[in-house]
Structures are given as structure tokens and as C-alpha cells.
Design goal:
Elements (H helix, E strand, L loop, with lengths): L4 H14 L9 E8 L2 E5 L8 E4 L5 E7 L4 E6 L10 E8 L1 E3 L8 E2 L17 E3 L22 H6 L9 E4 L5 H10 L6 E8 L3 H13 L6 E6 L5 H19 L4 E7 L1 H14 L13 H9 L13 E9 L8 H9 L2 E5 L1 H5 L12 E2 L8 H7 L2 H15 L7 H16 L10 H12 L11 H15 L1 H10 L4 H17 L4
């Protein structure tokens, strides 16, 4: 068999032309010890804090502790198959998550990996999990309301776009219910919602997803889940990942609402990692920088200036207290970072007052700036009146004789408490809230028996929507209680009361 020298030469020439000199340079280290979601690695001398590293099993780690002779790495994934002596490669990049419209309607883990069985997230947009929060000059004050659809919240502790309002209370007092109602009420407003579940039971997260799906809220909501069985590093980065996804909308002029449920479990996960890394413990065994852990997260919620598009992230962090201990370490930390808190009281909850909001301790530091003019007018003195009513109620239990003025104040208080009760997953439109609160605060309910107040409210709103449609439209467009609108409301109430017979 003869070889043609020209043929061999042309093949060699083609191979030489196509040859590219590629040298894969990466810094590698060796696992010294591994366990409980963390690894100690020797040899990654040039690795930076927060940089990603890769293990042979494909798991990603984050450089967490930079020590003299080794690097402490938190493992975001399966650490059980990693062994001593395994090679660790630094990737030279920061942790990023998928963002954009593709994540809406999905259930993801904190790394953006789908948990809902609907295939991978198809998007070219990614955002770093940790960024420095926007500065003072790039923000503007909160001025636009974010309605939650809950009468008690929208009237007494209003929330504005770009605000951080803490929901705090013991376990099983309805904290998640308030956050879910706020998400349901964003239907049709263009606000994208992100529900971050940290350390929750998987069954509880599944129940929340089912409610959101049933009510049609998954069309604009993303659920980021790091369940109770997820490793501590995943629970720690979950809120940052959720915020990164929300930031895509904020920086593109959109609005987002993020619910962190809850940050006490994130602090516990952070404490676990820090103690395993042998960082010195401080108060309640939390590391000294646990405040920074929450402040750098919540400071990313903002209302951007008009030059940057005027987008916003509103956040509702949830904190669980033990036995109402609001002055514990983590609750006081988060209270000092946020712009107000909604405090839920167990005894109110168990006595049937739901949402179980304590009007005295709950506050919004943005106040009337986050309310429409109509709502501001009807709810002006409501919080003080309710707080005064609670004090009077305690006094009246002593069995002393009360003068008529005090008695009438008590009677009005009982009716207002009844009026502010609201069933779960039934957020109310702003106009309906204004109509029912106006009737209550102006004394039109004083002759209605306390037990029939809620039925009266339902029938009244139904009556207004069927007979006084122009009033509802006026209130919707003007969002202000002008003299003309007040006259129409009074006329509607009187018209309704003349023919009303409670069932």
C-alpha cells in the first residue's frame, strides 16, 4: 500500500492549523476534613472570600473562612459523598442564580435548581447572590402604597413600596397567613412576588404553593425553598438568592415583594455554620456578625430614584419569638433594621381575633406616606382608639360602674375589633376597606349587635357594589374622600340601613 506524501502533508497541515494551545489553569486544593455541610481545604492560597469552589462529585462550595493554613468551605449540596483527600478546584467566580421572567411561577432551591418537576429554568439572565445595597443617593423616600388587602394592616401599619415591615410573633399566630394574603392581593398590580421558605417543613411549603396555585397567584410568584432537611449552607443563602432574583425586576423599573419565612431559622443556620467553623460565639451563641448577616440582606430592599427607573423591592421578613420574648437577640436586631413591625399576639389569636395584631406595639415608620388619601382619612385615629380601648377593657374587667361616655367608647371598640377581623386568603380591595372602616369609625355600626357586625359588613358591601356602582368607581379613581364622595357614602349607608334585616 502506497502513501501519497502530498496527502500526508495536507492532513498534517490541516491539523496544525486547527491546533489551539489551551492550558486549563486552576488553583486546586485538598480536602483535609469534611462533615455537617462544611469542609476544611488545604492549598487554595489565592481563593477569595465568597468565591465558588467545586468538589469531584459536582457539588459547589463557597469559601467562608480564610485561615492561615487552610480554607473553610461551606458546601451547597451533597456533602456525604465528599471524602478526605478529594481535590477541590477554585472556579474564580461568585455564586449566581438565574433571574428574569423564566423564574416566575417556579418552585426553586436557593441555587435556582427546579423542585417542581417542570424542567430546567431556561434563561440567559443571572444575578450574583450577594451585592452591595444601593446607596442613599440612589434611593428616594417611600411614597407609593403596597396594599396587603388586610384591613388592620392597611389602616394601622400601612406598607409602602420599598419598605421593610417585620412580621413578628410566636409560632402559630398567623405570621405566614399575613404574608400570603399580601401576595394574593398583588394580583393584577404588576408586582412580582418571591416567597423564601427557610427551614420550614416541606409539607408546610407544599401547602403554601398549593394555596398560591389555587388562588392564581403562582402566575406572578416564585417560591425559593430551603426546607428543614436542607443543609445549613443552603438555608443561609436562600434569602440572598430570593433577593437577587427580585433585584432583576427592581433594576428594570419593576416592583417586587419578597417574603422571608423566617429569618430566625436563617440565623440558626448561620450560627451552626459559624460554630462548626470555630468562629467565636457571642450573645446566645450567635457569631458577632449575625447583625451584618441580616442588615446587608434587608438593606437591599429599596425604592430606587426616578433616574434609576423608580423600581422597588418591598420585603416582609418574618421572625418567630419564643414566649413573646421580643427583646431577645435576633428579634431586637431585625426590629432595628426594619421600618416597622406587625406584632401578632397569641392570646388575641386564640380568642378569635384574626389577624391577631397588637395595635399598641405594631407600628409603621413610614406611616401615612404609604396610604391613599381616602385610607389616611378614615384610619386617622384608629390605632390610638384601639390602644385606648384595650386599656379601657382591662379597666372595665374590674367590675366598676362606667359612665355613659366610657361605656359608648367600649361598645364602639368591641364593634371595631369585630370589623377588623378578616378570614384567611380573602384580601379586600382598598375601596371596600374604606367603605367598611368609614361606617365603623363614624358610628354607623353602634346599633348593630356585635355578633352581627361581620355579616352587616358583607351585606353592606354587596349592596354598595350592586346599587351604588358609581360611588365605587369614583372612590377607585380619585382615592380621596371628597365632600361629594362622603355624601354618597352616607346616603348609601342610610339607604342600606332602612331596609336591612339581619338574618
Amino acid at each position: 500500500m502506497k502513501f501519497s506524501s502530498d496527502e500526508i502533508a495536507s492532513v498534517l497541515q490541516a491539523e496544525i492549523e486547527q491546533f489551539e494551545s489551551k492550558v486549563d489553569v486552576s488553583e486546586v486544593g485538598t480536602v483535609l476534613e469534611v462533615g455537617d455541610g462544611i469542609a476544611r481545604v488545604y492549598g487554595l492560597a489565592g481563593v477569595m472570600a465568597g468565591e465558588m469552589v467545586e468538589f469531584p462529585n459536582g457539588a459547589i462550595g463557597l469559601a467562608f473562612n480564610l485561615e492561615e493554613t487552610s480554607v473553610g468551605v461551606i458546601i451547597l449540596g451533597d456533602y456525604l459523598t465528599i471524602e478526605e483527600g478529594d481535590e477541590v478546584k477554585s472556579l474564580g467566580t461568585l455564586l449566581s442564580v438565574p433571574a428574569g421572567d423564566a423564574v416566575i411561577g417556579r418552585v426553586l432551591d436557593p441555587l435556582g435548581i427546579p423542585l417542581d418537576g417542570k424542567g430546567p429554568v431556561q434563561t440567559a439572565v443571572t444575578r450574583p447572590v450577594e451585592i452591595i445595597a444601593t446607596g442613599v443617593a440612589e434611593r428616594k423616600p417611600v411614597s407609593e402604597p403596597l396594599q396587603t388587602g388586610i384591613k388592620a394592616v392597611d389602616a394601622m401599619t400601612p406598607i409602602g413600596r420599598g419598605q421593610r415591615e417585620l412580621i413578628i410573633g410566636d409560632r402559630k399566630t398567623g405570621k405566614t397567613a399575613i404574608a400570603i394574603d399580601a401576595i394574593l392581593n398583588q394580583k393584577g398590580t404588576g408586582v412580582k412576588c418571591f416567597y423564601v421558605a427557610i427551614g420550614q417543613k416541606d409539607s408546610a411549603v407544599a401547602a403554601v404553593v398549593e394555596v398560591l396555585r389555587r388562588e392564581g397567584a403562582m402566575e406572578y410568584t416564585t417560591v425559593i425553598a430551603a426546607g428543614a432537611s436542607a443543609p445549613a449552607p443552603l438555608q443561609y443563602i436562600a434569602p440572598y438568592a430570593g433577593t437577587a432574583m427580585a433585584e432583576h425586576f427592581m433594576f428594570n423599573g419593576g416592583h417586587a415583594l419578597v417574603v422571608y419565612d423566617d429569618l430566625s431559622k436563617q440565623a440558626t443556620a448561620y450560627r451552626q455554620m459559624s460554630l462548626l467553623m470555630r468562629r467565636p460565639p457571642g450573645r446566645e451563641a450567635y457569631p458577632g456578625d449575625v447583625f451584618y448577616c441580616h442588615s446587608r440582606l434587608l438593606e437591599r430592599s429599596a425604592k430606587l430614584s426616578d433616574e434609576l427607573g423608580g423600581g422597588s423591592i418591598t420585603s416582609l421578613p418574618i421572625i418567630e419569638t419564643l414566649e413573646g420574648e421580643v427583646s431577645a437577640y435576633i428579634p431586637t436586631n431585625v426590629i432595628s433594621i426594619t421600618d416597622g413591625q406587625i406584632y401578632l399576639q397569641p392570646d388575641l389569636f386564640f380568642s378569635g381575633i384574626r389577624p391577631a395584631m397588637n395595635a399598641g406595639i405594631s407600628v409603621s415608620r413610614v406611616g401615612g406616606a404609604a396610604q391613599t388619601k381616602a385610607m389616611k382619612k378614615v384610619s386617622g385615629g384608629l390605632r390610638l382608639d384601639l390602644a385606648a380601648f384595650r386599656a379601657l377593657e382591662a379597666f372595665a374587667q374590674l367590675g366598676t360602674d362606667l359612665d355613659p361616655a366610657t361605656q359608648s367608647q367600649l361598645d364602639r371598640g368591641y364593634r371595631m375589633v369585630e370589623l377588623l377581623k378578616q378570614p384567611q386568603y380573602q384580601p379586600m380591595k382598598m375601596t371596600d376597606q374604606v367603605l367598611s372602616l368609614y361606617a365603623g369609625t363614624q358610628g354607623y355600626l353602634d346599633d348593630v349587635p356585635v355578633k352581627q357586625v361581620q355579616q352587616w359588613e358583607q351585606d353592606f358591601l354587596h349592596f354598595v357594589h350592586s346599587k351604588y356602582n358609581s360611588l365605587v368607581d369614583d372612590l377607585n379613581t380619585k382615592q380621596e374622600l371628597t365632600g361629594e364622595i362622603v355624601e354618597q357614602i352616607v346616603a348609601a349607608i342610610k339607604d342600606f340601613k332602612t331596609g336591612y334585616k339581619p338574618e
